[in-house]
Every structure is written in C-alpha cells, then in structure tokens.
Amino acid sequence: MSPRAAAVALLTLTAGCDGCGPPEGEPQPTFTSTPPPATVASGRAAVAASDADVAGSLPASELTWQFADTPAGALDVVIHLPPRRPNERFPVLLAFHGRGEAMKGPKRGARGWVDDYWLPRAEQRLFAPPLASTDLQRLVAGSRLDAMNEALAARPYRGLIVVCPYTPDILAGTRSLDAASAFGGWLTQTLVPRVRRETPALDNRSATGIDGVSLGGRLSVLVGLERPDTFGVVAGLQAAFDSAEAPELARRAREARDRHPFTLRLLSSEGDFFLRATRSIGRALAERSIEHRLDVVPGPHDYDFNRGPGVYEMLLFHDRALRGEAYEL
Questions:
Q1: Cis peptide leading into residue 86 (ω within 30°)
Q2: Other CB atoms within 10 Å distance of the CB of residue 294
Q3: What is the full DSSP assignment across 235-302?
Q4: Terminus-to-terminus CA distance in the chain, angstroms?
Q5: Separation between Cα atoms, residue 193 and residue 196, nearest integer Å
Q6: What topology does CATH give the domain 3-15+38-321?
Q7: pLDDT by residue (tens digit) across 152-170?
Q8: For position 160, what pLDDT does the model report?
Q9: What gap in Å lies between CA 269 and CA 102, rounded to an integer?
C-alpha cells in the first residue's frame, strides 16, 4: 500500500462494517446529510453580541486555510480563534469531525465543529456560565451538570485555538491501525508549525492537544499515540474502535508514554455504539498501568451528543489539561 493510500485508509469507517457500527441487533447509526438551516445559524449567532466583553478588545474570529496536496488529498482547515486581548496566547487543540461531515466534502466538512456541532455557541456559554441542561441538548442534568458549573465557578473558562481539519472518508477497505501514519506526519510537520507561526498559539508540546469524535476520535487517538513528541494531551470522543484493537492500542500507549509523558482521555456515552470498545481499551490500559481518564456521560451517538455533551466536555477538558490543570469532574 502506498503512503497516501495508507494515510487515508484510516478514514474508511462505514456504519455497517465489522466492528465499526453498533453490536449486532442494535440500530445502525444515522447521519443527516445536512442539518436543518436554522441549526447552522445556531452554531454562531449566539457569540456575536458578547465576544468583545468576554475577553477584551478582539472578538472570536475564524480562519480558513486550503491545502492542495496532503497525504489525504486536497482539504480545508477551519481555525476558530477565541475572543482575546491583544498579545494573548492560547493552547491549541486539533479537533476532527465525524463521518457525517466527511461525506459533505472538504469545504463543508471542515466546518463540522463550527457549524454542525455548534462550537462557537458552546464557547460563548462556557465564557458565561452557569450552563443549563438546554445548553447540553437536555442530555446532561443533575450531578454532572452541577459539577461542570462548579468547575467553571472555581476556574473560569479561558479559551482555546481550535484547529479543525477536514477528515476525509475514503472507502479504501481497511481497518489498519497504521493507516493514520502519513496523515499524522503532515499534521505534525506542516499544519501544527503553521498554526504556531500564524496564530496567537502557545508553541510548546504541553499546550498542544488532539481530539475528535467517532471517525475523528479514531484518528486523533492513533495520531496522538504515534506522535507524543507533538501532543501533550491525546483524547477521543466516542472513538470508533473495535474491542479487538484494545491490546494493541494499550501497547502503543505504553510505548508512547515511555517516549514522552502525555495526558490521555477517552470519553464515551451511555448510548454510544463504541462504549463497549472504549471500556475494553480502558481495561487494557489499566492492565499495563497506563494512567488515563475514561468518562462515560449521558447521550446517544448523534448530532445532539456532538452539540451537547461532546463539544462542552471537549472544550472544558482541554481548557484545563492543556494548561496543566486538573479536570475537576
């Protein structure tokens, strides 16, 4: 297999492939091809009025970079910059979307976190707590919502530069754990250095993280474990792994941790198709005495999760972890 084919083979997750979807007998995951028009506006409209008041004179803003030639082909990268004071610098989070956005192509797909998962709205609400259950799509309430608000009251949210590359879904027909290698090289050797040069980014490894949901969670974990010299925090949301892959992932995590210390987190949900596999990975990590965090929160494997617990948990966790602080939930 060529390096290019290997790089994109990772991105082949189909709902019905062996180990990619729910256990036999459970409903297959569904992805709407386009959110209703009103929902796209909801992702950004809430931030306009209060950005400047939250963190100084510069409101939240956005960049779009186009790359004609990567190991995964031509793609766009959308970069969300938080509201900020002049000369303020921020941790960097690479965030990868799921397969539903992969099917939309490089331009629309790269906007998955911004438009489809409502990241700007979540950021605005994190800057202005307390959070309400409606912010988390009514999926989270009670003790976990209380804990999130207590954490925000004790230490306000400060913001991240969120880098959102298009995550292509090319049906190359493989589940190889090595399929992310060439694409990961491009991310760490081309994209991350450019982010550090051209945005108000903190340029150290400890302030650089990688995360993603479903297909994107598989990518983020594989790249993060292969390149711990770049990422101080490695995480995945509802990451699309198979239980049979757990021992090898644990071996890779042990090898990576021996090279460079990093924080490792896996998050699943009660209705996630990949919950069983995530727990299997957690057990395999524990058997190798690899420190990690495994959180299981309410919610299904769908857009409501991404717009609710998924985006809020991702932003709040990395806001802490990329500053070397405990995630107090």
A1: no
A2: 16
A3: EEES----GGGHHHHHHHHHHHHHHS--EEEEEEEEE-TTHHHHHHHHHHHHHTT---EEEEEEEESS
A4: 43
A5: 5
A6: Rossmann fold (3.40.50)
A7: 999 999 999 999 999 877 5
A8: 98
A9: 22
**Dmax of the chain from CA atoms?**
55
> Which two structure tokens, joined as six digits, stand for 200?
């108000």
Q: Give the global pTM.
A: 0.86
Query: The tokens 């792994």 sit on which residue?
Result: 241
pLDDT digits (tens, 9 = 90+) for 263-307: 999 999 999 999 999 999 999 999 999 999 999 999 999 999 999
State the pLDDT at residue 175: 76
List the one residue out of 241, 233, 216, 240 whose CA is nearest residue 311: 216
Distances (CA, A) of 94 to 128, 162, 179, 282, 286: 24, 6, 18, 23, 26
CA distance 81 to 192: 15
Going by pLDDT thresholds of 50, 70 and 90, the confidence category of residue 174 is: low
